[in-house]
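TL;DR need structure tokens for one chain.
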Amino acid sequence: MWEAFVVLFWWVLFGGSHILLSSSFVRPQLIAKVGERPFQGIYSLVAFATFIPLAMYYGNHKHTGVQFWHSFLGLELIAKDFNVLLMAFAFVLLVSGLVARPPSSMMPASGVPEAYGVTRITRHPTFAAIFLFGIAHCLMNGTLTDLIFFGGFSVFSWIGAAHQDGRKVIDVPGYAAFKEQTSFVPFAAIIDKRQPLNVSELRWVVVVIALVVFYIVRAHHTGWFGGARMIF
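>> reply
TL;DR here they are.
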């Protein structure tokens, strides 16, 4: 149980420092005092100083605490298949978001915020990818420490996306309309007809590259990160 609390502590420290430093109150003051580039350096340094201990501690104490499930409700094959689908999609969103520089990103492309390509699916491709990563790994890892660690990615991404939206609605002209016309949850805006699904706008070379990277990571997952806990 103690291990789960320590993981939660580091998540609160990591997420809280992110939100505090990027808030509309703290961020402008720090930039005014030290400049944009030094602020980015401080932001990155704090992120590394809190996330690395989180990951290292979990790596040394994974699969500890109360066991809620071994695989999702004991359905091993379904859990595995769903994990693969979610992670493949997460890689596509992540790489597409990094290449596209959507209006929701830290360093967006110039111009009026407008839904196009991957942002018709989700306005936060990177955060949505992290959100799916957390869910996919919770399906395969069912102890309390596992769920707090991997669930933390989903919670952090949801809160981070909402926080970024709130700041950009104030700071970026036209972002409020972009927010209303799109969704954080993938395909939600398409399902409720706020956006069309225009596959011709997607960068298919990027999609293929993302899937290749996913395949490489999955092929070496056991050696690099360890295997999933799937014992019945």
